[in-house]
Amino acid sequence: MEHWQSMGLMISIQIVIGLIVTILGFFLKRSIGQIDKRLETGDAKFKDMASDIADLKEKRGFDREYFSKEYVAKDDFIRDIRTLDFKIDKVAANVEKLLVIRGGRKENDAEI
After folding, report:
1. In this predicted model, what pLDDT tens digit does every residue of 63-80 receive, in sequence order?
2. Could you tell me the sign of the dihedral formed by the alpha carbons of 90, 91, 96, 98, in that order?
3. Could you give the CA distance from residue 60 to residue 53 in angstroms, rounded to a whole number?
4. Residue 40 half-sphere exposure, CB side, CA atoms within 13 Å?
5. Strand extents, DSSP E, 24-87
6. What angle do CA 27, 32, 37 make, to 5 degrees?
7. How far apart are CA 88 and CA 94, in angstroms?
């Protein structure tokens, strides 16, 4: 291979590498720009939520007791109902066992 051919090959390789780096840089810059826009949108939404909470505090006054009763009570209620349901099922099973033992009901009788 002659000297000028090897120089041409090296220049072509450098041009291709330069184009690849340029294209990658373009997409990287565009992606970073999109991420920045999303962060700004998220910050704006966060500020809106903070102002809504401040408005709520201003209108109702921050009543810790109200919030604890309103929101925590719902979870407690669900938990209590589940526990009560479990206890009722346990009592029903015990009553059924007693009926079977005393002969008041046979095991193959239809369920209520």
Report:
1. 666 666 666 667 778 888
2. positive
3. 10
4. 6
5. none
6. 125
7. 10
